[in-house]
């Protein structure tokens, strides 16, 4: 094991190296691929979306029989996102632990010594976790849509394999999960703990929207519409109803993700590591 | 080069680093010596920009690390060898670090074989021994071919072969013209590796000088080690000459305030046979204890047996 021959010393002679945004993105992509828990959570996300969707389709056949195509049409075309309540927590957890595990292991110090400005690291983490979640969520959602139509076709209830509104909704499902992963990264930055980050994510997605209407404020019953889970529901809705359009739902989600990312960036800039 | 000026870090009322100033020069191994809790690691984190100073500043090669466009070329750091994601492979850990600066795959392989981790490069780091962690940490620190190297307790927990390896490596890095800055609480190690010593205690710099000057400046005693079968009789006669003694074993004692030559003469006069008569060289240990006597956060009292 002993070597004293060379440190590969090229001081002043070696090729120049520079910190680049693309380099930081590549670095975070290598880390995400190496994170076993992230791979497991993504696999569970795929399973959750497909099983819930296809399971829902099978239940539909059982309950409605072959003739009531008209009623079946609408619920069937939304089954690709039926697994979302579980999938959003799994993907959010990926975002949280992508950074929280670096704090727990201490590798964050190596990361921030190589990139001392820090903010590029967390934006790269958000971008990488978001892109991966979009790919995983969008693909499983599209796959589920096709699988649901195949199952329904077998019983003569199929709507259409390529129902445009459903396809757009499947892509929007991926996009929604990307925003949730970005929010997860920010929570991980601020809380530095996987458990605390996931708890806060659940509070944000499930608890707060139920509490806010109880506030003694004018129109407080409308507020939950602007929370991530509800705005997300508008964003992926196949049939437009409710206060927000599909686009507006998407904009509200983007604002949430942007808000959390800015908060995390402000938080991390001068914090002791 | 590392420059630190009036650097302070306080947590509430507790000043962990207190108005610290020093320079670590290129081509030199600078040792940062102090008891546990003296502020060594905090100072290192401040230099690397991981902690925000309460006052003062630290720069690496002329400016704060944050302002460099190529941080990994400026400084390579090993703070805590165990601080690696346990699930990642050694190779991917280095590849992720290299990617930030567009360092090529070849350099990563070069560093893996340089530290001797070829056979385990694709294994999860979680299963590594401390020695392997240290080697991986060294590979990571040298990845960017940095002109300044910062190492916190690099020989902690290493086996003798590893210690020798690190010692030769540090020498080599300094000889290549790099600034080498390492901390330790082990004096013997510092005595063997460092050219320049900075001693810190309770957040304050106690000494900053070459090893030789620190040794001579902090020489308070001229101890002589004496062993004899007739220790009791010898003890009485040297005490009568005004010396101080400290019993160190059944048949041995340390004599202060009386040169070896004089002890030999007195022993001869009283027909006492000596088994050993050896002036004790001033050790870094002694100088260090002397410097930090009042500065260590937790100290244990020593039992001394003063006869007479």
Protein described:
The complex is a heterodimer of chains A (273) and B (308). Residues 1-6 of chain A have low confidence and may be disordered. Chain A contains ten helices and no strands. Chain A has helices at residues 21-34, 36-64, 69-77, 84-105, 107-114, 119-154, 164-191, 194-211, 228-236, 246-268. Chain A is mainly α and 273 residues long. Mean pLDDT of chain B is 88; it is low at 301-308. Chain B is an alpha/beta fold and 308 residues long. Chain B has helices at 40-47, 71-74, 90-100, 105-114, 130-142, 160-175, 187-193, 211-217, 231-240, 260-269, 284-292, and strands spanning 2-11, 14-24, 29-33, 55-60, 75-78, 148-152, 179-184, 196-201, 204-210, 224-227, 244-247, 252-256, 276-279. Chain B has two domains: 2-217, Rossmann fold (3-Layer(aba) Sandwich), CATH 3.40.50; 224-281, 2-Layer Sandwich (Alpha-Beta Plaits), CATH 3.30.70. The interface between A and B is large, with 45 and 59 residues.
